[in-house]
Amino acid sequence: MRLLKKIILFPLFLIIPLMGFLYAYVQLSARDFSDAEMAEIKAAIESPLKSMVGAEGYAENEGVRIWYDVHQPKDTIKGSVLLIMGLSADALIWPEYFYQPLIDSGFQVVRFDNRGVGNSDWNAFDSDNPYTLSDMSNDAIAVLDILGIEKAHIVGGSMGGMIGQTLCIEHPERAATLTSIMSTAWTEDPEMPKIDMDVFKHIGINTVKYGLSGDVEDGIKLRIAIRELLMGSEKYDLDIESIAQLTRTNMEKRSGYNQQSGLQQTKAIELSGSRIDQLKTLNTPTLVIHGKTDPLIPFEHGVKTAKLIPKAQTLWINGMGHSLPKMYSDTIVSKMFDLINPTKTYE
Q1: Do 164 and 176 meet the contact criterion of CB atoms below 8 Å apart?
Q2: Which of 253, 265, 279, 329 makes the best surface tag, with the fewest CB within 10 Å?
Q3: pTM of this prediction?
Q4: Nearest residue to 257 (alpha-carbon basis) of 219, 294, 227, 229
Q5: 324 near 239, Cβ under 8 Å?
Q6: Distance from C-alpha of 104 to C-alpha of 48, rounded to nearest angstrom
């Protein structure tokens, strides 16, 4: 009996200290918040919640429901812009300061939640038959179909850029132009610097500390920590109020945050493989944008993507990391206007 007790208790002597070590590591490594920041976060939680969505609806692709919203200009629609967001990110993360100039210039702007995030279906992932970027680009096509949009200007950020590239390869007739932002032709390209897994590690650490409780305050802290990690070396002040509004909207008014989406969508990226050869034959007018200090997808990936796509225009931004901060938005949108040609009308 004593021997049996020792056998049962022995693993506990190993597990308990290990858990203590991991707890201490997370507490010390995660982002900490000052009293001033905490006061700002609490004030943002108490402020009125503003509407962040346009005219909402759902499209369907092979049984998967995809949420979208539409923002229309006041007068004649010159064309449609479809915004595709990146890994684990919902559509609402596209900032108003980015898409409002498009609306003001006569473009209809459509956003949608990728499968697995936001208000789109979370149950689309099957470990025995996982989805790919092709499935996700077909989600985008389903949104265009239900809205009756024959051609759209495709704008994708990070994984959204990969989805946009896939859409233009597989459905070239549906893309008027492509803007690929902070993205890559292949995450595992042996000729390119590797994706920085240290960023993912620190996102994971902050997720363990702030992302599991379901508490709104912790949710805001996590989003602030992630934004800072994606800034790269050039730091700037974050708008805590806008981050709080986005987080609260998702947690209080929408479906919240799917903690499994990152692993599921990473699997989709891995299974989809390289687009290098296909991009060499792409006829879609393209703009490739990348920050020179991107801490997640190295700048070299953007340079190679642009070289692969015939006649691709480029915009390289000093100081921009893996994000779309307001300070660079005017430059980005101005370059996008050069591509999408506001004088030409698309159905």
Answers
A1: no
A2: 253
A3: 0.92
A4: 219
A5: no
A6: 26
For 89, the domain range is 55-197+256-340
Residue 73, C-beta contacts closer than 8 angstroms, at least 6 positions apart:
103, 104, 105, 106, 107, 108
Query: Is residue 84 in a domain?
Result: yes
The answer to whether 274 and 189 are in contact (CB under 8 A) is: yes
- Total residues belonging to the chain: 347
Which CATH number covers residue 291? 3.40.50.1820
Provide the domain count of the chain: 1
What are the pLDDT digits (tens) for 313-345? 999 999 999 999 999 999 999 999 999 975 554
Lookup: tokens for 108: 């209809």
Strand, helix or coil for residue 109:
strand
Read off the amino acid at residue 28. L
What is the per-residue pLDDT for 347?
Answer: 42
Q: Where are the alpha helices (DSSP H) in the chain?
A: 2-29, 35-46, 96-104, 133-146, 159-170, 197-210, 216-231, 240-248, 261-272, 276-279, 299-308, 326-340
DSSP 249: I
Within-domain flag for 329: yes
- What is d(CA 84, CA 331) in angstroms, rounded to the nearest whole number? 19
In a domain, 17, yes or no: no
Asked if the structure places residue 98 within a domain, the reply is: yes
250 close to 92: Cβ distance less than 8 angstroms: yes
Write the DSSP symbol of residue 281: T
Tokens of 345: 């009308």
